[in-house]
Specification:
Helices cover 36% and strands 12% of the residues. The strands form 2 sheets. A 5-stranded parallel β-sheet has the order 1-5-4-2-3. The longest helix has 23 residues.
């Protein structure tokens, strides 16, 4: 009898252990502070903090690598002067990813500052880039560093990153990247276009200084990315709340969809919420967005409010 009980306990222990391992390598789009704390130090998990080096040196998650959204090569100016595009040659970016200690087996957890929805967009844009590069083992810490430091018992490190470089090999999925030509075809076919910018830019009252015209893509619907986080902060809203907001914006949660903003930054939030949180795998991101569209005169612009 005792042997049978011991065997049952052993089997139960193995099942629990396997469950822990599976959970450790589960690549959910969002992970919370408790998950990260439980998996900190796991050799298969690489924490990548998205911060300026000076801020990172002051405080970061122990063992984290550091990448600078603006300066580490995630985006570049194209030869025709269109800014903030996915690099046409991915070699430098792939080398940078490897320098962070990320290999093809790594589960990457991206940690943004979490101060506002805009810096969470750094994480969603890098998340999207990992997916474009063929790497699916990637998650975002919901709430970012602000959520991590809220619990004073969570450990903090200071100083520069200490990483061991790995070899990262990209397997690009360029079908995930919508071009201006794709947008023209989408407009002709009546595909849903979703504007992730603030509403004043959507209606044409204001514009990003990098764009050359006010307005939005013809027929687009507005779903500002600031709606998708709690009070415009670093915590994404739950699915039930997001469904209500999509309904208010008259944006379906399924079917073909192109998300855009000014430079593909805030649109990555829209894409992330639609594709990863709402499960609409037909959602795509228009990389160049309104800056490329207007600078290159790629097509018409719809302006709902004209002040001059």
């Amino acid at each position: 009898m005792n042997n049978k009980i011991s065997l049952r306990r052993l089997c139960a222990g193995i099942v629990v252990a396997l469950g822990v391992v599976a959970n450790a390598f589960a690549s959910e789009p969002l992970v919370d502070v408790a998950w990260l704390k439980a998996n900190l130090g796991n050799p298969g998990v690489v924490v990548v903090q998205v911060q300026k080096p000076a801020d990172f040196a002051q405080a970061h998650v122990p063992g984290a690598a550091n990448t600078d959204f603006a300066k580490s090569g995630w985006r570049e100016e194209r030869t025709d002067k269109v800014p903030d595009m996915l690099p046409s040659n991915l070699d430098k970016l792939v080398a940078h990813i490897g320098s962070l200690g990320v290999g093809n087996d790594s589960h990457v957890v991206l940690v943004a500052p979490g101060e506002n929805y805009g810096d969470m967009g750094w994480a969603t844009r890098i998340y999207w880039t990992f997916k474009v590069l063929g790497h699916d083992k990637v998650s975002i810490l919901n709430g970012g560093m602000k959520a991590w430091t809220k619990d004073k018992t969570n450990p903090i490190e200071a100083g520069p990153a200490k990483t061991t470089p790995k070899v990262f090999v990209a397997s690009p999925r360029m079908d995930m990247v919508a071009s201006a030509d794709d947008v023209r075809k989408a407009i002709a076919a009546g595909v849903l276009l979703v504007d992730s910018r603030p509403e004043d830019q959507f209606v044409g009252i204001n514009r990003n200084p990098k764009a050359s015209q006010n307005g939005t893509l013809p027929g687009a619907r507005s779903l500002p990315s600031v709606w998708t986080t709690e009070n415009g902060g670093g915590l994404f809203r739950n699915k039930a709340q997001l469904e209500k907001l999509y309904k208010i914006a008259n944006v379906p949660t399924s079917g073909e969809q192109l998300n855009f903003c000014n430079t593909g930054h805030l649109a990555s939030i829209g894409w992330f919420v639609s594709s990863e949180l709402m499960g609409n795998k037909q959602a795509k991101l228009y990389d160049g967005s309104m800056v490329e569209w207007t600078l290159t005169k790629a097509g018409d612009v719809e302006r709902k409010v004209v002040l001059d």
